[in-house]
Amino acid sequence: MKLAVFAHCAVDTITIGENNYEQIGGSACYCGLTAREFKFDVDLYTKCGNDFPIQYLSDNKINLINSESAKNTTKFAISITGADRTLKLENQCDPIEYSNTKADGHLVSPIFHEITNETLKKIKDDSNFLFVDPQGFLREKDSENNVFLQKKDLDLSNVNAIKVNPEEAQQLVTGTHDEMMVALQKRGVEHVLLTNKTEVSLLVKDKVYSITLPNKEIHDTTGIGDIFCAAFCCTMLKEKDYLWALCFAGGAAQAALDSKNVGLQKIPRKGVIQNNASYFYNLVKFRDL
């Protein structure tokens, strides 16, 4: 099976306490490499400059589509304190161009404005299963390049699944957590995932399914959401079962956190994800809305 991923690669400087780590990343890498763990073929629609080690992705059998840019790669400075992080945008690469792909699913996960509304519309017209992580649509920067979230009217019709945290959801809709999930559903989304630190909820029709990730010491949270999204996507496409998809997504995020690794080294192996997924499957809580 094939997953098409639309996202920028990034070069990140990650600061945790006193330590600085120079890492390649961006949702392009985290989503693409996680999908490879699930044995998916990956078409990666991205843009990066000569400062990005593209060979690393090719070595992992990720198929790069029209990725070369004269500009340098999108770059963030990320400061992490516990589960919270702040971002500074240090460079922005070219927007992503769309071309037709025969993929089973499309995962759209921008990091900063690389996907236009026009490109999103083209992806929708082409897609049988579309997962959107809207973070990069909602991000803006101030005069000092600090990244913050801003309200945006995003067309969510024909979106099969979305993942938001409460702060992101508030930029798209209003209300309590439950009300925001329902409002996103009303705007056309079939599966609404809300991640609130260790609480993960999934709204399908009129039921909310939830799991709680064991709250252990958190190290580097960069890319955890991307690993989660790719695991959900791949499981949905393979198993056609949203409960297993929820459990695999949670299982992948938990395995990545448990690794205590920084950057792309935290992407977990399929076996570990599977063990965690089975554990969560027996603990899913559900309620009617």
From TrEMBL:
It comes from Nitrosopumilus maritimus (strain SCM1). Belongs to the carbohydrate kinase PfkB family. PANTHER family: CARBOHYDRATE KINASE PFKB DOMAIN-CONTAINING PROTEIN, HEXOKINASE FAMILY MEMBER. This is PfkB domain protein. The keyword Metal-binding does not apply. SUPFAM superfamilies: Ribokinase-like. Residues 105-263 form the Carbohydrate kinase PfkB domain. InterPro entries: PfkB_Carbo_kinase, PfkB_dom, Ribokinase-like. GO terms for molecular function: kinase activity. It holds the Pfam family PfkB.
